[in-house]
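ok new one. same drill as before - structure tokens go in, u give me an amino acid for every spot. 336 of them this time. try not to just spam alanines like last time pls lmao
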């Protein structure tokens, strides 16, 4: 009885000392930060065919998403190409939607020449695609859309299930553009040893360029990324598509891809402890992101997963950085 009373008293004392997890004090700003309402900059997003700019804006307002950074819209003959859809969305949403260029251009070039264009310095299709990317990047604001140097096990499009040289001529030029425009190259790159070695060389050759690892390497474990961040200062991660419900269908086959999830009927919200430690140790190198979703219901669930499974599990200063501060710095967005 005495022991139980002592535990109860200690719990009360600690409760007075520790900020409520839903509303904790940020040492950096001195302001209370609530994981439910902290603004989010979505650092990696694809405008799907079912989405309209008006519907996207309504969802952003509902979920307190201040800005969306496009990774390249999904295009079709009926809806228009990726560059056109991104441009039109920016025209309607203004600075809250930053359009991208490059995804559709490089994919179209590869459909003509095949993956060899990534290693062929004389590739006409690659040169034409890079010229269009260079032209569109001159029309600020613009970012470099998602590229796919290695999607062997993580792409629905059969053409994209391959591995190309990360340090080949195409990515060399993209890194030169990154340095010139101060925009990161967004790479979907599974953590194959050869790809990792090539990316290391690329980062060392272009110290003024920057790479964002889409999905933080997709197939990575925390230890993989920790070693890479220690070695390279010009690489950051987005945490898109590393949670349920997006990864739930593949969880049994690829459990390492899931690093957080929101609460469910029989489980609590969760962030992998090793990933939590990594993010807290490198708080300036991670960004929240949504990526692609099947419908608006899944979009809503992904945002809930980001808030409950990721942001709520982090210390207040790190939470603010991952939610929006890092993306504002990396993409040179105005402060709110």
């Amino acid at each position: 009885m005495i022991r139980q009373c002592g535990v109860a008293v200690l719990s009360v004392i600690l409760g007075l000392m520790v900020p409520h997890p839903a509303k904790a004090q940020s040492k950096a700003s001195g302001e209370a930060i609530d994981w439910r309402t902290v603004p989010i900059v979505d650092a990696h997003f694809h405008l799907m065919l079912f989405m309209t700019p008006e519907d996207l804006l309504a969802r952003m307002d509902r979920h307190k998403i201040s800005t969306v950074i496009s990774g390249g819209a999904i295009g079709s003959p009926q809806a228009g190409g990726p560059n056109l859809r991104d441009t039109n969305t920016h025209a309607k949403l203004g600075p809250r939607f930053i359009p991208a260029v490059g995804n559709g251009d490089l994919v179209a070039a590869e459909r003509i020449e095949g993956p060899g264009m990534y290693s062929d310095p004389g590739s006409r299709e690659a040169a034409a695609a890079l010229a269009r990317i260079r032209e569109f990047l001159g029309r600020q604001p613009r970012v470099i859309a998602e590229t796919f140097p290695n999607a062997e096990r993580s792409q629905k499009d059969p053409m994209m299930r391959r591995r190309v040289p990360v340090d080949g001529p195409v990515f060399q030029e993209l890194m030169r553009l990154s340095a010139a425009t101060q925009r990161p190259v967004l790479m979907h790159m599974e953590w194959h040893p050869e790809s990792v070695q090539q990316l290391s060389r690329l980062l060392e050759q272009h110290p003024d360029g920057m790479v964002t690892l889409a999905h933080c390497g997709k197939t990575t474990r925390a230890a993989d990324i920790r070693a890479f961040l220690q070695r390279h200062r010009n690489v950051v991660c987005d945490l898109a598509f590393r949670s349920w419900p997006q990864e739930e269908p593949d969880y049994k086959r690829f459990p390492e891809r899931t690093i957080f999830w929101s609460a469910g009927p029989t489980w609590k919200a969760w962030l992998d402890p090793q990933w939590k430690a990594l993010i807290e140790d490198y708080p300036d190198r991670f960004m929240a992101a949504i990526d692609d979703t099947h419908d608006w219901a899944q979009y809503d669930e992904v945002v809930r997963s980001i808030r409950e499974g990721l942001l709520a599990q982090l210390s207040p200063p790190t939470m603010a950085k991952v939610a929006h501060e890092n993306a504002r710095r990396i993409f040179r967005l105005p402060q709110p």
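The two ends are 53 Å apart (CA to CA). and btw The chain has eleven helices and 14 strands.
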